[in-house]
Amino acid sequence: xxxxxxxxxxxxxxxxxxxxxxxxxxxxxxTGAPSAGAAEDGFGLHIVDRKEDDPRMWYYRxxxxxxxxxxxxxxxxxEDYHDSGRTYPxxxxxxxxxxxxxxxxxxxxxxxxxxAGKPVIVxxxxxxxxxxxxxxxxxxxxxxxxETFHITQLLPWIDANFRTYAEFDGxxxxxxxxxxxxxxxxxxxxxxxxxxxxxxxxxxSVRRDAGLVVHWANVSxxxxxxxxxxxxxxxxxxxxxxxxxxxxxxxxxxxxxxxFLVAGTSPDPVNWFDTINETQVxxxxxxxxxxxxxxxxxxxxxxxxxxxxxRGDMVRRDLDGVVERLRKA
Length: 329
Prior knowledge:
- This is Acyl-CoA:diacylglycerol acyltransferase.
- By secondary structure, the protein is α/β, with parallel strands linked by helices.
- The chain contains 12 helices and 9 strands.
- The chain has a single domain, classed as Rossmann fold, CATH 3.40.50.
- The protein has helices at 8-14, 18-23, 27-31, 81-84, 105-108, 111-114, 146-161, 178-189, 208-224, 239-245, 272-294, 312-325; strands at residues 45-51, 57-64, 72-76, 90-94, 121-125, 171-176, 196-200, 258-264, 300-304.
- It has a 9-stranded mixed β-sheet with strand order 1-2-3-5-4-6-7-8-9, sandwiched between helices.
- Strand 6, helix 8 and strand 7 (196-200) form a beta-alpha-beta unit.
- Helix 1 packs across helix 7 (146-161).
- It is globular.
């Protein structure tokens, strides 16, 4: 692995040294250079399990103080990664919420085939069953700081251990459902990190309809991840946190980015969850699109038949757009 993965020092030096470190919030400067033979650990992460025998899909599990159990990540490599010697852009692809949703969800959704032939590294991390890509207001099950894990730890670790462009034009973020919300949120809260932001059936407006998305985030996280704790606080919300995470309140942060949105127009009338979920997604995305239009920010949007589901044709189209927008391998 060490022959294929340059050390953190060499990667950041090649990407511009101090500039690259500053773009990552100074994480490298605070962590320091790795000891000899320890290039794969760092940034608060320690590898506890790994699998690299598949030529395309590599797997790692980490110990981290940010999350009270060992979260994992799948990394899908381009077919020519091992032989080309080239540097690649990276797409962070975030999974949806619910029981059984985790870092393997996108593999089950066919990402290997959807990304075949595309010169981009696809990183698919754990985000909790209902972690909402947030550091929660409260937890009764130990630390569940998913935003810290992804942004402060995993992102610089990927840049240090794979041949990536450690810069704004080298990264995109996308996701489905809860992951689509996470992508929009990360794109706005960390505007210098991602040049492409995509939401597949992810909510873009969390305060509309009396804060239905915020309530759902609190209820689902309390039930499945936080043992009664909540992402945004209950019964009183942490209003500053809600506003910080709400995409429609940060429209100007998407200026200069590629923005890609998908929502379904015909939820299953028999499935109440699908109906409520995608109806809310569609309304929120329309509100968001109107604000983008008003700000003169270009974006690509699709309203597709059906409900709350991953649409392979839209994912493939999105991947083509990601590759076109990001720095070329």
